[in-house]
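Human: Respectfully, please carefully check these tokens:
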Amino acid sequence: MRLLPERISVLLLSELLVSFVCFFAAAVYFFGVQGLNRERIVAVGIAALSVVVSCFFNGLYRNLQWKSRVALVLQLCSVFGMVLLLQGVLAYTGGGLQTGRWVMLCGVALNFLVMINWRIAYAALLKKIFPTEPILFLGVDDVVCEIASNVAARPELGFSVAGFLSESPALGTKVAGGGSVVGTIDNLTELVDELKVRRIVAGTEEMRRRLPVEALVGAKRKGIAVEEAGSTYELVCGRVCSRTFRPSQIVFANELAVAPGVMAMQSIYSNILGLVAYICAVPVIAVARLAIRLTSRGPALLSETFAGLNGIPFVASRLRCAEMDNPDKVTAMGRIIRALHMEYLPRVGSVVRGEMSLVGPEPVRVEFAEFLSSTIPIYRQRQTVKPGLTGWTQIQTAETDIPDAIRSVETDLYYTKHMSIALDAYILLHALRSVLPLGEE
């Protein structure tokens, strides 16, 4: 799996370099080359790093599209406001890691102008630097149409829709992702060369019917990737496709299994970080509980039973945000608690007890877990890892607004399949970004 597409990785590294050069130039202007000692160079590096971190938390590395140049300018204003705030914090701590006042102000001004122009130029040069990888779809079923739509919506992935091969609908019919029917399966060999296809994706219907095996083997010999729809769906959508999933993938291949070493490592750092978070959270939870009891009637904490690792039930609590006799009516204190994302803070205690981890599938109440297990055959596979305070599904649904249980399970299974320290770190960073009061992407 690729946490950061190549195009975004290059943008991130290039902006880190650009920021360093801008702050370094400002430092040379004010101190001269001879005045640049080790401490000042380190301070310049920290300032440049803070720009990239601020861009990340402002959502500038989620995709390469923005609504308008005005929107880009406003986002960069937020970025450099955050950079100046971080420099103020460093100056207050007195660690000597901050740059000089005038170096910082001039560096920020120069950085602001350069980054606006660099972002616009990078977007314009993107197709020349990174040519897209055209995908030719065999069939027009729901799965390939969803893949095509996601390809069109996420240009940072580097794919494009070359077209669809199908007997029906007719030639030239628009299908999805801006692509249309360009021929039939019998035309595969000539269309691969004509459209300069780099990837062929076979839909679920075509996988069940006859496939042009000879033509596909010929395409592979030319270096063209040939995949079934489920594999490409996972790459493009960030979810396991339940519509193409086969029981043999669990029974024989064990594709969704989590490596024991990864599970053990996650338990170690979840317990350590959870304990630190719990120590910090205890006084905050105590104040919140007191405020809830003073402003409304009823208990401050509400406890529920959830299905944990391997379906074993456990009890977790949350701060009460609504009236006891009217769960739909949020109290004044409840609005504050939800605005500060504190409602589920008591669940940190479940991390310390080993019932939850920092990252994992969202905890589901026992009765719902039993119902979903009987309805969705692959649901129990998500219970092979501990539920988490945040997770891949939570950050995905926050950005794509996926409503149904099946797609949430698909996203959870993607996490269990690709679970790693790097993925957990990526999820935690995005979870932190989601709770910060920053502008929308």
About this structure: Residues 133-237 form a domain with the Rossmann fold fold (CATH 3.40.50.20).
